[in-house]
Amino acid sequence: MARSRQPSSTLRPGGKVVEQHWDPKRYQRNAGFVAALGEPLLELLTPRAGERILDLGCGDGTLTQVIAARADVTGVDASPEQVTAARARGLDAAVVDGTRLAFAAVFDAVFSNAALHWMRDPDAVIAGVWRALKPGGRFVAECGGAGNVESVLRALAAALARHGGDAEAASPWYFPEPAEYRARLERQGFVVASMALIPRPTRLPGALADWLDTFAESFLATVPPQTRSMVKAEVEDKLRGTWLDAAGIWTVDYVRLRFVAAKPSEARA
Ligand code: BEZ
């Protein structure tokens, strides 16, 4: 599969769009590391008392809650189940499509961890973040970057192809090159303070098959339900020599794109 490309629709047999669904309990079990590894991004955000912050793609609110201890934070996420979980923590959270943000110059900062790569229209996201920020506001984010989970994608694409599936058409992920994302931000008017592509091999809490169940639903949906276990087993077989250690711990080749960008003080909405 291409390392970096325009996000595509999630098209499936019969022209159906298969969306990723989030089960907060399964997410906590198989992906609790996502929020834990997002803590360094909070250091870049440095939320301050009195600030209003938008957490874009807040998930179950794990990091939103950390921000809430220091500033006034609103979380938004496209998943109703995740928003329910965030609200159960007492957070201000709403179901909002990240490509349709409708806030107007109300936030001092927009924060986003491990969410932008699920949003298939990056320019719409960036335009919404721009509108949501006050002049002088900052956009601090991390998402999957070019090369992210590439070995898994290759193995998954090959396994799906053997069973009549199509990973390319199914991909809901967008993993941009730094130069590409920088150009998008600058076209909107942002001043990019930092932008880095960071390889971060990431240990999984369970089997690679569980990771696929949690994150790769759109891909697996391209083959019949009775075939999915076989596809997952084939992916594990292909990768165990590289990514499974002697203690039975799986690692995945995560690559992060991390950036800080500012909406200039003199900017108009
Ligand atoms: C990530 O956070 O990098 C990621 C999320 C979903 C699928 C693959 C990677």
Helix/strand class: alpha/beta
Our estimate of the beta-strand percent is 15-25%
Could you say which overall geometry the principal axes of the C-alpha atoms support?
globular
Alpha carbon gap, first and last residue? 38 Å
Explain this structure to me?
- The protein is of the alpha/beta class and 269 residues long.
- It has a domain at 9-148 and 173-203 and 254-262: Vaccinia Virus protein VP39 (Rossmann fold), CATH 3.40.50.150.
- Helix content is 38%, strand content 22%.
- The chain is built from eleven helices and eleven strands.
- The protein has helices at residues 24-36, 39-45, 62-68, 80-88, 122-132, 150-162, 167-170, 178-188, 208-215, 217-220, 228-243; strands at 11-12, 16-17, 52-56, 72-77, 92-95, 107-113, 133-144, 191-199, 202-203, 251-252, 255-262.
- Strands 5-4-3-6-7-11-8 form a seven-stranded mixed sheet, sandwiched between helices. The chain has a two-stranded antiparallel ribbon with strand order 1-2.
- Strand 4, helix 4 and strand 5 form a beta-alpha-beta unit.
- The chain starts with 10 loop residues before the first strand and ends in a 7-residue tail after the last strand.
- Benzoic acid (BEZ) binds next to loops.
Concise overview:
The chain contains 11 helices and 11 strands. With 269 residues, the chain is α/β, with parallel strands linked by helices.
Structural key phrases:
disordered N terminus, Rossmann fold, 269 residues, binds benzoic acid, alpha/beta, globular, 11 strands, two-stranded antiparallel ribbon, 7-stranded mixed sheet
